[in-house]
Specification:
This is Thioesterase family protein. Pfam families: 4HBT_2. InterPro entries: 4-hydroxybenzoyl-CoA_TE, HotDog_dom_sf. It comes from Hymenobacter montanus. By secondary structure, this protein is α+β, with helices and mostly antiparallel strands. It has one domain: Hotdog Thioesterase (Thiol Ester Dehydrase, Chain A, Roll), CATH 3.10.129.10. It is 23% helix and 38% strand. Strands 1, 2, 3, 4, 5 and 6 form a six-stranded antiparallel sheet that branches. Strand 4 and strand 5 form a beta hairpin. The radius of gyration is 16 Å and the shape is globular. The chain starts with a strand and ends in an 11-residue tail after the last helix. 20% of the residues are buried.
Length: 142
């Protein structure tokens, strides 16, 4: 299963300086996480039925190269870490320009929320297993 999606940037993604606004990077990363969940059989309807939702504790974006309107970008997703029970996880999204240069990274730390109890939850075992199929991030030496 691919952990990579290609998008074309839109007018709504731009800021007055003529490049992609800071929050648009996070929007593309979030979209890819939802696409992956859907591919794994956990679309919004199933998550609602399970009364389970993904939440973020931290989101950090590192900006590397400008992205402009109409550019094709590729968003790759890698698993940095996941607890054995799947309850907490860290994901790294790298956003690439069409020429292959990294434009930004978006790192998120999250967990699963029981929507009725409003407490952290352990996801179903098959969802944890699906998370573990993601490409694993391997830090590059400095």
């Amino acid at each position: 299963m691919s952990n990579s999606l290609v998008y074309r940037t839109r007018w709504a993604d731009m800021d007055p300086n003529g490049h992609m606004r800071h929050s648009a990077y996070a929007d593309y990363a979030a979209d890819q996480r939802i696409v992956l969940l859907t591919q794994w059989g956990y679309d919004a309807a199933r998550l609602a039925k399970l009364r389970l939702g993904p939440i973020l504790f931290r989101e950090e974006t590192k900006f590397i190269k400008e992205v402009h309107i109409g550019e094709e970008i590729r968003v790759d997703t890698q698993l940095v870490s996941v607890r054995d029970d799947g309850s907490r996880w860290t994901i790294l999204h790298t956003i690439y320009k069409a020429d292959g240069r990294a434009a930004a990274t978006v790192t998120v730390e999250g967990a699963w929320l029981d929507l009725d109890r409003r407490k952290l939850a352990v996801p179903p075992a098959d969802l944890t297993a699906a998370f573990k199929t993601m490409a694993v991030y391997e830090a590059q030496p400095c």
